[in-house]
Amino acid sequence: MGKLSVFLRPAPAGRTKEVWLDRFTDEEGKVVPIIVKCITPEENKRISQKFVKDDGSLDTAAYGDQMIVECMVEPDLKNAELCEYYGTMDPGDVPNRMFTIGEKQMIQDAIMEVNDITTASERLKKAKNS
What we know:
Layout: E1 16-19, E2 34-37, H1 41-49, H2 60-71, E3 72-74, H3 80-85, H4 94-98, H5 101-114, H6 120-129
Antiparallel strand pairs: 1-2, 2-3
């Protein structure tokens, strides 16, 4: 089969990463990890298509919130009890009510990392250093 066999590997959807936020502890005071996962490019496409504005641009804030919802394994932001606690039935609202700005950024960074997403500036910096 030659070199083709090297490329016969599916995307690593389901791979996970833990995020530790000191504010979320169990009954014993131990920090409980927030777990995010890798999704497939098809799932990402489905999510991003929901947030295309009339002018063709992407509503990045809404897209980012929905990515948190879709990639977060624990806690499940779609859980009705969790949504009710945060005063919404829309799981996309929960990240903005549950996390501080810094916590939300840490979660978004973990989602980008587990999904192998880098920004253009990060790629440029990496290229300059190699």
